[in-house]
Amino acid sequence: MVVFNFENAEVTHNNLGGVGPGDGDEYVMYKGIGSFNGDPIDMKVVTHNSDYQAGKPYKTGLEGKSGQINVKIGSVANMTFTFLDDVTQQPVTLPAFYITIFDLDWGPAGNEVVEVKGYESLALPLDPEFDYEEANGSIKATSTMQGNACDNPTDPEDLGIVTCKGLTVDTKRRSFSVLFRHQSSFDITFSAPAKKDEVKPDSGRNLQFAGTSALSDQCS
């Protein structure tokens, strides 16, 4: 099992879909997220849809112990995450790894929809606070509860209860974890459908993701 550590990773290139905040080639590089057979590995993220937009591009990158991708309200990011050898930059097939999606909620301007495909098993919380459709190694999860930035989990291994701005949130109930085996990459689609006709130009939602989490040991 390969364990990722986003807290010790570094974003060395940040221009997903060509929207910045950096420039050059259109991808995000998370350098040093873990190791395999004693060699450090990186994670490269690219989008496949030319209409991807970010409300706040500078929000894409790292957020504490997780990775983060910002999507503008009304936009979608069809992404592939690929593991690379840190020296050769060639794809590396990992025997097994977890990916956890958390902080799945909506804001006044937009909703959140996350689709993940190709996993071996799925771990869901008891009484999840999101709607989902799941079949054949694919899940589509849609937020159903309001959230605030102050209730974002700071540690995927500690998905506890947070109270702020008048809301009490069980962060585990807004998360799910998937187990992949024998893959060098995986795909996630993250969209932020608008909840009203007019929104601020920089309005967006954030996809927060990590590796292992408080849910991971439920994957079989």
Description:
By secondary structure, the chain is an all-beta fold. The chain has one domain. The chain contains no helices and 16 strands. Strands 1-2-3-6-15-8-11-10 form an 8-stranded antiparallel beta sheet, with no helix packed on it. A hairpin with a 2-residue loop joins β2 (28-36) and β3 (39-47). The protein is globular and about 45 Å long. The model has no long low-confidence stretch (mean pLDDT 94).
Number of domains: 1
- Tally the helices: 0
Residues in helices, as a percent range: under 10%
Secondary-structure-based class equals: mainly beta
Beta strands, count: 16
Entry keywords:
mainly beta; eight-stranded antiparallel beta sheet; six-stranded antiparallel beta sheet; 16 strands
Short synopsis of the structure:
By secondary structure, the chain is mostly beta strands. Helices cover 0% and strands 46% of the residues. It has strands spanning 10-14, 28-36, 39-47, 61-63, 66-72, 76-85, 94-102, 113-117, 121-123, 130-134, 138-143, 161-164, 167-170, 176-183, 185-191, 204-210.
Topology at a glance:
Elements: E1 10-14, E2 28-36, E3 39-47, E4 61-63, E5 66-72, E6 76-85, E7 94-102, E8 113-117, E9 121-123, E10 130-134, E11 138-143, E12 161-164, E13 167-170, E14 176-183, E15 185-191, E16 204-210
